[in-house]
């Protein structure tokens, strides 16, 4: 086993040293550019999937108040009543039963910060074991020596085991989809028959979003580098065309990739359909999607050269 120690946010967590690694994916430097967004994300990456540890400021709210704020400003949570205990703190743990992917989620707070452990459920029991192990071996500084408990409802564990064995859900971290290669892609490929979220992740070269496409719009405020807008798409930027659940064409929601847009009434999108097609390109009205998601700042070739020099 390996131990990750975070002095800034006051915790340690144990994870498997064999086949898993921990990478900082998001880290805002103080003073925070967006104090309501995720302050830090550590992604635990293994053959069984991606597990994200996200940290927000509580802004002085108690745990239930913060959950209510999150549910109102991001995506609705199924419950705001604690049903578990993590490192001695009240927590909610639940499985979000998605359309294309299931998300196993745990929220808890230490008074100053709110933590989330977020796992894209795969058809691999080891991945679930690692998720539970991370929760059970998560410790906060200042509570050393105190009697702390991590208690997870057995009903949640059983539901997650059932989701893991559900038919038709391919394992995320497939290295290819419809002949395209995308290592560490956290989205399923529906038995190599396509998936819109897999395609957008591949086309963008990585995005921080997880879960079904219909939830991406609500996730945008969590990521300090990303923004969203109503149609038309931003000029001179790559973007993600977003279709909310209940859209006339895509009832379950959808995302597509926009490589460029220079103005006009139409925009060219490329996309996959979940279990429907392996990729197509189409010119559509800029007003067909419900909105567009994009990076606030796109790295330039000069930025890339500077980074190579600095490294």
What is the compact description of this entry?
The protein has helices at 63-73, 125-136, 154-164, 196-204, 216-219, 301-310; strands at 2-6, 11-15, 20-27, 40-46, 49-57, 84-86, 89-96, 103-109, 113-120, 138-140, 176-177, 180-181, 226-229, 239-245, 252-258, 266-273, 277-285, 291-295.
Secondary structure elements and pairings:
Layout: E1 2-6, E2 11-15, E3 20-27, E4 40-46, E5 49-57, H1 63-73, E6 84-86, E7 89-96, E8 103-109, E9 113-120, H2 125-136, E10 138-140, H3 154-164, E11 176-177, E12 180-181, H4 196-204, H5 216-219, E13 226-229, E14 239-245, E15 252-258, E16 266-273, E17 277-285, E18 291-295, H6 301-310
Antiparallel strand pairs: 1-2, 2-10, 3-4, 4-5, 5-9, 6-7, 7-8, 8-9, 11-12, 13-18, 14-15, 14-18, 16-17
Describe the structure.
The relative contact order is 0.12. This protein has two domains: about 1-165, 3-Layer(aba) Sandwich (Protein Transport Mog1p, Chain A); about 175-300, endopeptidase domain like (from Nostoc punctiforme) (endopeptidase fold (from Nostoc punctiforme), Alpha-Beta Complex), CATH 3.90.1720. The radius of gyration is 20 Å and the shape is globular. The chain is α+β, with helices and mostly antiparallel strands and about 300 residues long. The strands form five sheets. A seven-stranded antiparallel beta sheet has the order 3-4-5-9-8-7-6. It has a four-stranded antiparallel beta sheet with strand order 13-18-14-15. The protein has a three-stranded antiparallel beta sheet with strand order 1-2-10. It is about 20% helix and about 35% strand. The chain has helices at about 65-75, 125-135, 155-165, 195-205, 215-220, 300-310; strands spanning about 1-5, 10-15, 20-25, 40-45, 50-55, 85, 90-95, 105-110, 115-120, 140, 175, 180, 225-230, 240-245, 250-260, 265-275, 275-285, 290-295.
